[in-house]
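Anyone? Bumping this.
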Amino acid sequence: MDVAEPLKGVTVLDFGQVYNGPYCGFLLAQAGARVIKIESTKGETLRGPGRPVNGTYPFATLNRGKECITLNIKKKEGQNLVRRLVEHADVLLENFAPGTLAKYGLGSDELRTINPELIYASSTGYGGSGRYKDYLGMDITLQAMTGIMSVTGQADGPPQKAGAALCDFLGGIHTYAGIVSALYERERTGIGSTVDVSMQDCVFPTLLTQLGAYFQQGEQRPRTGNRHAGLAAAPYNVYEAKDGHVAIISIREGHWRKLCEAMGEASLASDERFSSVHLRSKNMDELDAKVEKWTRRHNKAEIFSKAQAFGVICAPVQNLEDVVNDPHLHERGSLVWQKHEGVGEAVFFNTPIRFKGKNTPYLKEVASLGEHSNAILSEMLGLGKEELEVLKKEDVI
Amino acid sequence: MDVAEPLKGVTVLDFGQVYNGPYCGFLLAQAGARVIKIESTKGETLRGPGRPVNGTYPFATLNRGKECITLNIKKKEGQNLVRRLVEHADVLLENFAPGTLAKYGLGSDELRTINPELIYASSTGYGGSGRYKDYLGMDITLQAMTGIMSVTGQADGPPQKAGAALCDFLGGIHTYAGIVSALYERERTGIGSTVDVSMQDCVFPTLLTQLGAYFQQGEQRPRTGNRHAGLAAAPYNVYEAKDGHVAIISIREGHWRKLCEAMGEASLASDERFSSVHLRSKNMDELDAKVEKWTRRHNKAEIFSKAQAFGVICAPVQNLEDVVNDPHLHERGSLVWQKHEGVGEAVFFNTPIRFKGKNTPYLKEVASLGEHSNAILSEMLGLGKEELEVLKKEDVI
């Protein structure tokens, strides 16, 4: 099978740190771009210090397939090297604290005077304009700020974060989307753009169900646990099975009818109390009890396959052990077992941006800190062995 | 200020339904593409039936700026009209149940024989390959399947969904990213691709912290509420304030030192018990109590601005009322107040894919069902008034 590499020929300078920027760089690498990861001489936050030389699992999986170089941008000579690299790059990607690169004379306006075709992408907590533009943000504080915590959890419990680092990853994928949009536009205009992604902006749309209920009701109602955010659909919940839990959702009349059939209670579909989405929502407790009476008698896997056979939207609540071994994800090539130095044998993910009939490109194991510094600086900037040694001695690379 | 329209000139046939597909179509429209939304003659799930003519808030905000036409793809004549429209389109976008369009002879292989440049994008629960490829999925069941529920909530509570519809929106933005990647590639090859996005694939990376802990410890530990997923960083939690809650995170030594300064307890930074990330994690309960003693004495807003002034990563837990009125989001143009028929006055979001120094394009209020059917079919396919009347009478449009 062919390999999909839509961004082949694109060169990226990736100053990403932790999750947001590196996820974007990972997607670029797996779309076929050449991604040069630039770290401080100590390594970025997720690699070190105090961690194994090639980092832990999160670092190793996000930074596969990147060439790793070090540059000390606090030093004038390091800043000059960035400027020289920018002449050879299509994209610069960063998610430092706001204003970090500008402070060192490496802001988008300065760098575009060197290379007008450069696409400069910044991904921050709050974006590059507005009163909070200089504020720091990480996933958990963005979950607080954006309202996710206010709608997650039980009615009588405290605000609850989502376990997934969704702000970071929504930031990373929107930044990728901005970069590729700018690359496409550059084909027409010949000029680069500055992508300005704010994690806060990216989260807002995901609360659409709650926002709909809020604007309709004029107020925010209590959290609804695993039920529909507006309590306006049922069955819609997580139910106990013999060996865990399953989630079931029904939105349209057909979903409900099929669920009744799957439960072996076709007559329930014509029961007065459950004969419209309005009545099902009104009699939610009774209805949920009926569904759970069924799910409690079966295993998760039985319910899953039976429900799907009847056209019911259902899935087991999987734990991480289930997820990393999910046979479908492995068959599809979304997950692969790989052995990495410092991490051992683990399951690594491939890009979710997939193309029918094509494989994702193989990405090399994460490189060690500065592994490609000499090769890249010599190939791209023509630096010689002695110059490189001096730069190394002076803690520039 | 100029308006950013990187995809100007691109024509999209948008068969999106509910959130996933329509969010992708919304992003395309706000990137300057011409987006033609195609619905059944009854309207897509989120518009009707049984809802106001122009839908509720979620429908109205996701479908602004699209031209709305109806086509009954269950009828031969409707299928033919799709084939004819495809000759004039760059992109076809859909998130039907798997195989729906192929069943009507409108799969990617068939349509690319008509237009080899067509980019055909499908966004489904489980993707187009692997054993679950025909399975149905919606946000809540994908949250179950992907492990999000297993890591959200309290250690002694049941698995908990994230309030945000993150699977749907991660699906939509990855589909956008796939489409634009394929558009960029087409500039070189002249040939379209079939984008195959699976919501399940998109979620996996967001569990990176938990996966890291899982592979390190060899097992999944209990849920950690609002604390670090691996209990390997502190302070990292949601704390009570006088008037609600705030989230605070510290990862690096500097974060912790600055927090001590913000709390007016600089000496705490040199306290033996809290002198490394390892010790802070070990003495987490004691540490959290110290931080909360401080936060309880102040209002959320005071803590937020004081913390940020000291370089501490912190944010208030905002509710929806706070979020829709967030002054920063309005200053930045990410949110706008608009009045829509059937919805009234509400806050609408603009695309999170932003470009520095450029505005997002204005999007017209959502169109009513089939509002542009006659205009589009006449403009693009040259259909006359009488033909249109017959199609209408026969429930084709």
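Late reply, but here is one note on the structure posted above: The first helix of chain A runs from residue 20 to 30.
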